[in-house]
Records
---
Amino acid sequence: MQITKQLFDLQDEKYGDFQCKLTPGVSRESIIGVRIPAARKLAKQYMKEAESAEFVRDLPHKYYDENMLHGLLLSEYKNFDKCVKAVEEFLPYVDNWAVCDIMSPKVFKKHKDELLPKIKEWIASDHVYTCRFGMEMLMCHYLDDDFRAEYLELPANVHSEEYYVNMMIAWFFATALAKQWDAAIGYIEQGRLDTWVHNKTIQKARESYRITEEQKEYLKTLKKKNEK
């Protein structure tokens, strides 16, 4: 396919070596080595061309960089219903955090009422990266003006042995502490999160410039013992 050929034209092998170290479980052979700015430029180019539709339907992809480009293409979709359909077709094939996190459909911002039920479905999924993606979309779109305290229950009720799910819960609650302290702090005070997630949330929050020094000191006193 022409798109894959263009990805190889953009190959940077040293960057591929570096990316492999950041994505455990992804084989070096599957990584072409395309830098993100170059992949973004290619995605914008192909949003205007018919070949991108064929590429998006051609699942599973062979290369990590094809999956990254796929996620970037979905982020550019203008139609909400088409975007959700394409995202749900792609999510089962997402097998690493980088591809999961590169997806950030711009159209979601304009359709928050319709998006929320889909987010709830994704968070409830047993698939690691579908669950992670759902929580990330909740974090990105519902911790500011559209925030409701009840939304914190969605990630709080996820109990997993999966590292990349648990890291996302911690990331979510660290962000919630920065943006909605009064609503989120109770989850830490009451020990609602699993021990590892609880302590990782505190660590990430204390590393944030959006958390005050007083809040950081208070969080330090809430750390749980016997961390897994």
---
Amino acid sequence: MSQLNSLLKNAKLALSDAQTALDNLTDSAIDLTTPTIRLGVTGLARSGKTVFISALVHNLIAGGRLPLLEVAGTGRLARACLQPQPDDNVPRFNYEQHIDTLTKERLWPQSTHQISELRLTIEYESATFLSKHLGGGKLHLDIVDYPGEWLLDLALLRQDFRRFSAEALKRAKARPDLSADFLKTLTRYQDSLHEEFSEQIAKELATTFTTYLSRCREEENALSMLPPGRFLMPGDMKGTPALTFAPLDLGSIHTKPKTGTLLAMMERRYEAYRKHIVRPFFKNHFAKLDRQIVLVDALTAINAGPEALDDLSNALSEILGAFRPGKSSWLFSILSRKIDRILFAATKADHLRRKDHDHLEILLKQLVEKAINRAEFSGASVETLALASVRATRQATVHHNGAETPALLGTPMPDETIADIRFDGQEEAAIFPGDLPDDLSTLFSANQETEASEDQTILKYVRFRPPKLERTAEGLTLSLPHIRLDSALEFLLGDKLA
């Protein structure tokens, strides 16, 4: 019987792969008329996905501030315009509202907690002699925005309930300050695992587990490895049985649970989560991407301390492990679509002095070093970059008592504080944020002294309001300012706009 079940399972997987290949074949047939690139944009909490997409589209439509995007820098970019997206069953990315929030209210838009999509059509003049004389080029850019927490869930496809429970409890026990209530609840019901299922117990376990995950994500902790991702972003799945389970302590339990018990139902709901939430996301969205950018809020992790940085490194390695990287020939991409370019981008570079931008990029490269090596070995092009999707500060020099001090000039968000100063959100301020250390290894727990040295620089990152849009002498309003957004676009799209 077990052999028959295995054969049936393999047959279902083969059928699913065949359907995905057929979908890719259909997409490729459409691409023969107008090429399409599906760009995945993801990142963990506070990484700035919404701002990145809004700034990307705004700058391409306005046609300015992109000198390092070769097609724009050489004057070959004719125009870019929004078009109806191809997937009618996916929410549209609310570009217009987000731009109004950024430029008119000068506030940061609310984060999105679901998948969304936007199509941008780019018209350009080809750089090749033959294409130039055959007419203008056109590219559909389909931007797929999804939470990074969902990407971490793909690892669950490789984990049964026992392994998921073991890894989740290992992380929870490492932070008893955050997980005490959940662990106490788990201990209280340990003897009930083989008793008849109780919905009340299941809800209590799921609630305390979700509360623990929420505490982990708070800015002062900034932990990233928090699967299952939908527990923190349930959307329309909130309250469903597929989200009403929790990891259990199965160390001494090796027998198959009896049907109808608490243990059996928790295992069943975990499998339902994988079947009805994780697998559809992989099949319907993730498996159809061509290029990917992963936005990383390394500064918040630095503020939270070495443990948060170590956890972020593990999360990024897990994220890259979810990709199926590799360079694909045209024919091979039809049969098995693969992401062939992945960009890891450390956001909020405008919160640092210019000299620290390179340090931030080096730090990011260290965070994903093992994962990058794994991806490059299999053929994908992987890069790291420090950027600011919207530059909210300017570099400045403050003169005080005959001394010059480098600083950042911008308008802090309302109620931001430094020492005993509270900002009102209206006046500009010159702020020195501190420096990243030359030896970045000191930021990680493995190289952290038990007590910080007295001369160690304390970093303080203040949130700034989006800037006022600048105007030219002729009265034209310029696009949103940024740091290296054009470099990111050149890596992700440059070869398709040649």
---
Amino acid sequence: MRYPEFLREGGIIGFVAPSFGCNIEPYRTGFDHAQERFRTLGHPVALGPNCYEGRGIGISNTPRACGRELTEGYLSPDSDVLISCGGGELMCEILDHVDFEKIRRGKPKWYMGYSDNTNMTFLLTTLCDTAAIYGPCAPAFGMEPWHSAVSDAYRLLRGQKLSMEGYPLWEKESKKDEEHPLEPYCVTEPRVIRVFGGEEPVRFSGRLVGGCMDCMVNLLGTCYDGVKDFADRYKEDGIIWFMESCDLNVLAIRRAVWQMKHAGWFEHVKGFLIGRPLCHGQEIMGLDQYGAVTELLGSFQVPILMDVDLGHLPPMMPLISGSLATVTYGGQKISVEMALR
């Protein structure tokens, strides 16, 4: 596994928009303020050409333009790390225009984003054997004040914190809107982690990989599906899957899990970290978010931790995809210790 250099004092933070750009509120103001915050911390910024674009369908610009920006931004010596401007809908369409071979041969660089950015974080790990960060996108760093999860993401980029713990409360309804673009997370709901497939205390180790289930299942079976080779390469370590979902309802989550399972993606699995889905609390035809996952993954006889701080209902623990991690859980306390080896 290739690990990039962490963001140094005075290091340059680059921004790219391979999915949505920050062309509308509240994202534009949030992004502008994030740049101010980073400059205050001593970091110059470098903007890709699509950061404020909104001409694309489900992404900031044309697939070709977005793919070129991502490749050039990743390989450019003008930035030390990259943060995505946002998630979106059709980042998958840029992949034919991303030069993964050049990226694989080039100097590794930290790339951070989540949701639609799974199309990069997941593929950096599984195709390029390069670590990436599944964490907040650029406008989140514009909130005032920073939530501790946002601070953790910055400290992770700096290499100052490689062990993440869960957060006591989560946001059910956001107060951020066009009139309040810098609003912090409105955390009101107590986090309650549920454990399946094991008794507390739970402890397991393996190589972290995962992201947004909506995006991952879309890649399954394509020329960008390198999961089985990746899992075989690290079978001695075992694999820890972290997954969350955005647009999928509970039935679609179950179909996605079924498809990934039958494609052999979960070979050598040591445990699962399942984030709160955006459809949290939904039930369809007697199926809830827990049955959607556990009834299919239970056959692996490994721990399944659900409603973990991951994904679209913040806050989220920033995780290094590709790192060798140890997960410890007991009494509603979770920690993910990540080692770069």
---
Amino acid sequence: MFYEKFDKKLHEIVQEKGHSRIIKRLKEALPDDNSVWIMYSSENSDPYFGKFITKKTTAPAVSLVSKETIALLVHGLDADNIKNFGNSTIIYNKSSEISTEIKTFLRHLGFPSNIYLNYSDVMDTATDVLGHGTYQFLYNLIKEFYEKNGKNVYFHSADFIICTLMDKKSEEDIKYMKLSANRGLQIIEDVFKEIKPGVTEKEIFNIFHEKFNKKPDYFKSYGIVKEEFAWDKAGCPIVLVGSNLAKGGHSLPSERTLNPGDTIYFDFGVKLCLDDGRKYSSDLQRMGYVLKDGETHAPDNVQRVFDTLVEAISLGIENCNPQKRGYEIDSIVRNYIINKGYPNYNHSTGHPVGEMAHSPGTSIAPESSKRSHLFLQENGVYTIEPRIQMENGGSIEEMVVVGKSGGQTLCKQQKSLYLI
């Protein structure tokens, strides 16, 4: 099994070097020396401030990230909680002083002309976290300060900075994401082995939850302290059978019975929570077929659906490199399905996976999506999940890590139908 080959000391190494690694990544994410990324957090309002800077502030706090240094402006009420930040920590005690300290530090940095803030100009709700009022406060404060000093300033969305940090995975991250993918796949395969004709979608859903509740012994060895469903447990997994394959991919399980001659697919993932606070999600889909009496394999029409999905996904995987934008991968996969004579599907071909099953970053979607114009990140993990959306159709989803010359799946790619 995959987990038997896993490096059991991995999470200990990450815990020891985690802070310095994050600081290094933050500085590398800035585009140039004339840029500063400003995050504003009050009552933990900014998840990226909490992830990369600190979760130990309640009063308004501001971080200023440049290639030179990282400053943290924190209220005196929270000062005792910030002891090991390791960079410039500036304490203020009145609400007006935070404005003064922001200006003082920007002067110290030499009035960098490019200011990056946590709003989205590609309509990504996961990165559009600043809020209009806070944006106006920072914009007016900095613009007036620069104009008073005869300096030019340009404001930019921090979309690509956040996407770089969240999309791009370290070697340790990839190993844990493989663990999450293989855990999810093992549950899927166990369910396929157990189900029989006559069960309903809801009953299959309940079998998944029974399997999920039985935790493997190896979790403790890898610092896994908790396992959650990768998305809301009321809809995880998605189970669709036969005629229901024509429905949307987010449909809840029904009383539809699994019968001979039906195709079936599961959409399932888990989230592994580590003792050092990191989380890794998986998101997989697998397709099967229920044999009729006398059948030893799927009929030609079902096999053709399955083969088309596998071939489309394989083409997508081959092309997953950092020179490709999201819409280019979507076009390759989607057009292959359509050119085989099947209907277009009503969703994106893929999305980033990380802490969440749907993480911030490049969307593998049609060109009309702004997020699809972002490039794939090397060592980023994305799904490829085309669908043949028709009665007794099918859907498969693979998790793919991007490499310089193409992608690789995080767990065994489905190349044959599960036969029931």
